Amino acid sequence: MVEAEADYKRDMEAFYKMAKYPLIKYTDMHAEMRDEAMDICITAVEKHQQDWEKATQMIKETMDKKFGSPWHVVAGAYFSYEITYECKNILYLYVGGTTGVLVWKM
């Protein structure tokens, strides 16, 4: 039992270490735009932890200013999507392991 708990703690530590890095699930953005959008998403989620409304508002406003309107954003722990988007303008990533962020332009 003690050994199982030690294994669990070790596994969780490894997960949290890995989860600090963003994981891109899907994108068709150019590399430069993708990197900027990823930085914007990470900053917003870290600044407004668990307050998805403020985080998405910050991401949308920043993306609108940098890349022109209209950008749409969804963030949260559990969601799926089926959307229409402008080619070369979608990013779906995970930040912090469990927070999904979807950014797209229509």
Automatic annotation (TrEMBL):
Key words, A-Z:
Cell projection, Cilium, Cytoplasm, Cytoskeleton, Dynein, Microtubule, Motor protein
Q: Known SMART domains for this protein?
A: Dynein_light
The protein's location, in the record's own words, is: Cytoplasm, Cytoskeleton, Cilium axoneme
Q: What GO biological process terms does the UniProt entry carry, in alphabetical order?
A: microtubule-based process
Task: Name the GO cellular-component terms.
Answer: axoneme; dynein complex; microtubule
UniProt cross-references to Pfam families, sorted A to Z: Dynein_light (PF01221)
The family database entries (InterPro entries) matched by this protein are listed as:
DLC_sf, Dynein_light_chain_typ-1/2
> What CDD domains does the record tag this protein with?
DLC-like_DNAL4
| The keyword Cytoplasm appears for this protein | yes
Q: Which family does it belong to?
A: Belongs to the dynein light chain family.
Q: How does it assemble?
A: Consists of at least two heavy chains and a number of intermediate and light chains.
Task performed by this protein: Force generating protein of respiratory cilia. Produces force towards the minus ends of microtubules. Dynein has ATPase activity.
What is the protein name for this chain? Dynein light chain
State the organism named in the record: [Myrmecia] bisecta
